[in-house]
Design goal:
elongated, Rossmann fold, alpha/beta, seven-stranded mixed sheet, four-stranded parallel sheet, about 425 residues, 14 strands, single chain
């Protein structure tokens, strides 16, 4: 066995790949390492056509990695791939350095970012579950039975079995405590539902600017930084939009290939997305891979049961794109990522926030138009539809048809106006979206 370094901040990055190496994958892994507080000693790539079941990579590449670690003084090796317990143990034994895979790295970042009681419990639970399969590391010298020597006689149980039993007991305790916290959170959520306020959740790829947008809209001071997973704990605030108030929740950012065992650590924030009425999908407009990021977030939303919720794409950070301006690209009815409704803003500079709030109020049906509506005798179907929507506030009839007093959400009014008999409704609609 080797003496593990307690520092573990000078890291050698290993990027396994098969076929063509995508630069953005390596860039994201580097950002993950830096977000965890590591300084990058060097980065090596390792082509893997057939993963080695004992060490993942080939023996020749392993010699190269050890030489690079010794030359750079790296005391930690980070591998951008999921490692089995035996692979991790074998790599550590050969490299004589701590080895952490992608899952362990993300868990470490979570542990740094969690500040609430619930967040800390969730992260600890995820860490213990991850650790339970790797408990053998560093304890092989205690795998013999206790007893035999004076002072060491005791129960016929190995040290590892004792550790596993204690770990399982701690996991059960955490699960019970989290169940209590979840009951409290559910009660708070039900109270928001009873208040009849629409619930909106900010979702998006990590570092897209969700927390900055959240602060700009709410005036709150949620932690925001140019880091991956800057926000882990959910934050909820009430905000005003045209036509009324909504409840806005900030959530943790997503990454590609999110390990399934980490979804449990997302439970608090993901429940806010899953229980929302509407999603604001925040996108880094300056990211050259933004369409891929959108697809990756959609994949995670589908996994947690929020994929069918209505959403608006918010293209943030237009301040980083020369010549880009605030604008609203209306939905054209084609269910395709590239054609979804979009609003282009800069949360940092406060550009386009009024437009975003107006579009949000419209999509949630909070913006209304009202007035007198004259319907001819031939407009019986339109009159019936208005009554079904419960937007008629008064009505009288004469020989020319009906005169209705209506108050109707703009979104519904636009749908009715688009129909063949919708000419009377068109007169109620403003020429452009009301400003906030």
């Amino acid at each position: 066995m080797f003496d593990r370094s307690k520092r573990g901040e000078h890291a050698l990055l290993i990027q396994p790949h098969s076929g063509r190496l995508e630069e953005d994958v390596l860039e994201e892994f580097t950002d993950l390492a830096r977000s965890a507080g590591a300084s990058i000693a060097a980065t090596l790539t390792a082509r893997i056509d057939r993963p080695n079941p004992s060490i993942l990579i080939g023996s020749g590449k392993l010699d190269e990695i050890k030489a690079a670690a010794e030359a750079t003084g790296a005391d930690l090796v980070l591998v951008n791939h999921a490692l089995s317990p035996s692979q991790e143990r074998n790599l550590e034994r050969f490299l004589e350095r701590r080895v952490i895979d992608r899952t362990g790295l993300i868990l470490d970042i979570f542990a740094q970012r969690a500040h609430s009681h619930e967040g800390k419990l969730q992260v600890e639970l995820a860490q213990l579950r991850h650790m339970s399969t790797r408990l053998v590391r560093g304890w092989t010298h205690l795998e013999r039975q206790r007893g035999g020597a004076i002072g060491l006689r005791g129960p016929g149980e190995t040290q590892l079995e004792t550790d596993r039993r204690l770990l399982q007991k701690r996991v059960e305790q955490l699960q019970k405590r989290l169940e209590k916290v979840e009951v409290q959170r559910t009660q708070m959520r039900r109270a928001r539902v009873r208040s009849e306020l629409p619930r909106v959740a900010l979702v998006g790829y990590t570092n897209a600017g969700k927390s900055t947008l959240f602060n700009a809209l709410t005036g709150a001071e949620a932690y925001a930084a140019d880091k991956l997973f800057a926000t882990l704990d959910p934050t909820v605030r009430r905000i005003a939009v045209p036509g009324g108030n909504v409840v806005l929740a900030d959530t943790v950012g997503f990454v590609r290939d999110l390990p399934h065992e980490l979804v449990a650590a997302f439970r608090a924030t993901l429940s806010e997305a899953r229980e929302a009425d509407f999603l604001l999908h925040v996108v880094d407009a300056a990211d050259p891979h933004r369409e891929e990021r959108i697809a990756q977030v959609d994949e995670v939303l589908n996994e947690v049961g929020a994929g069918e919720l209505p959403q608006l794409l918010v293209f943030n950070k237009i301040d980083r794109i020369e010549g880009s301006e605030v604008r609203h690209d209306a939905q054209d009815g084609i269910p395709d990522t590239a054609r979804r409704e979009r609003v282009w803003i800069s949360a940092r500079d406060g550009l386009g926030l009024d437009l975003l709030q107006s579009v949000l109020g419209k999509r949630l049906g909070l913006q209304h138009v009202s007035g007198d509506l004259r319907l001819p005798p031939t407009a019986g179907r339109l009159r019936s539809r208005l009554h079904q929507l419960e937007v008629v506030r008064g009505e009288r009839s004469d020989e020319d048809g009906w005169l209705l007093q209506v108050e109707i959400p703009i979104a519904e009014a636009e749908k009715l106006a688009a129909a063949d008999d919708g000419a009377p409704i068109r007169a109620l609609l403003p020429e452009k979206l009301p400003e906030w």
